[in-house]
Amino acid sequence: GKGLEKYLENFKEYIAGDSKRKTSATCILCKEIVWHLKNATSNYSRHLQRKHKVEFDSWSKQAYKEKNNKMKQAFIEESLASSSGTEKYGSTHPPQIELAQMVFKNFIIELGLPLSITEKSAFIRAMSTVDPKFRIPCRRSITNEYLPKMYNQILNKLKKTCLAADFISLTFDGWTDRRVRAFYAITMHYVDQTGQLRAHLLAFNHISGSHTGENLFMEYDRVSTSFSIGGKIVRLITDNASNNLSAFGELVIPGHRPNDDDIQNSFDKQEELLRLPCFIHTLQLVVKDGLNDSECIRPPLSKVAEIAKLSHKSITIAEKLQNEKFSIPEAIVTRWNSQFLTVSKVVDIPNTLLNDLLNEQKK
């Protein structure tokens, strides 16, 4: 990024050998050599972030300030250029409302474009071509007006849907992002009055603190209570994590009253429970256990994994495979089908080609 040069020196570019298409630079602050691919700088900023946080924060603030000033200037210039001699729609004019909703729903929500798209010069010119009278909503208006309004509309619509549904199944899943922040999502599934299976996301929230069964149950109870669906839930699907078993393992279907004097067999008792394990996750565990128990398959699977890793690490191998119309996806150990696909792709490569590539890398 711009401005990083004051923290780095001795920039070098390599055009041959193992370092081909790579660059390196020496950190002025700690003298460590930082490597990166040509025409990219993310490793440099990442090094600064990890090793020199004070300097990184200073650089980030300055870069953001400069970028923000440029965007504001471009927005002003484009707005003045597009508005010269053209009277704009009022905020309540039908075309103004229609186009503003189109920008918000189609571009920002459905295409996932950032809110700052409305301040980009190219976008301003494009919308001026669509309708010169259209007044593009600024990012502040979208944040303070459009987003809260649409959120409330969707929330009210979801609550009406929950009220009309007779029986509801829920899926509950949690994960962490790259910054190790924990989230969970709850999705409802039901059959509408026309017989169509429907699904709607009820919650996608950050969860703080320890992910104990008690905390997960509190989040589940809070969401089910806010949508008034506690008595309509007939199934809850989760993965097989121990905290999910602790949180939901003993829940029973609403309305069911177990009779302690008439003990049913284990199958009937299982039918009373609200929670069901995710089939795909259970299948993954079965396949994983099977592979772990099969000693004869470990060496070839390990070899395939190394070949796949090498094809993503070595530019030379990746290019040669691409020239021969081959590719090797990296196996994801938590998805058995991805491991199967990786093995299949490696097996499809002719032995002569594969041996040549490996010999070149002295593997």
Question: What does this entry look like structurally?
Answer:
This protein is an alpha/beta fold and 363 residues long. It folds into four domains: 4-51, no CATH class; 84-151, no CATH class; 165-277, Nucleotidyltransferase, domain 5; 295-360, no CATH class. The chain has 13 helices and eight strands. It has helices at 42-51, 53-83, 94-110, 121-130, 139-164, 213-226, 242-248, 266-272, 279-293, 298-313, 315-323, 336-348, 351-360, and strands at 8-14, 22-27, 33-37, 168-176, 182-191, 197-206, 233-238, 275-277. The protein has a five-stranded mixed sheet. Strands 1-2-3 form a three-stranded antiparallel sheet, covered by helices on one side. Helix 2 packs parallel to helix 4 (121-130) and helix 6 (213-226) packs across helix 7. The protein is extended and about 65 Å long.
Order of helices and strands: EEEHHHHHEEEHEHHEHHHHH
Mean of pLDDT: 83
How do the strands line up in the largest sheet?
6-5-4-7-8
Helix content, binned percent: 40-55%
Distance between the terminal alpha carbons, to the nearest Å? 36 Å
Number of helices: 13
Number of domain modules: 4
The CATH class of the largest domain is Alpha Beta
Task: Indicate the radius of gyration in whole angstroms.
Answer: 28 Å
Which consecutive residue ranges, at least 5 long each, have pLDDT under 50? Answer: none
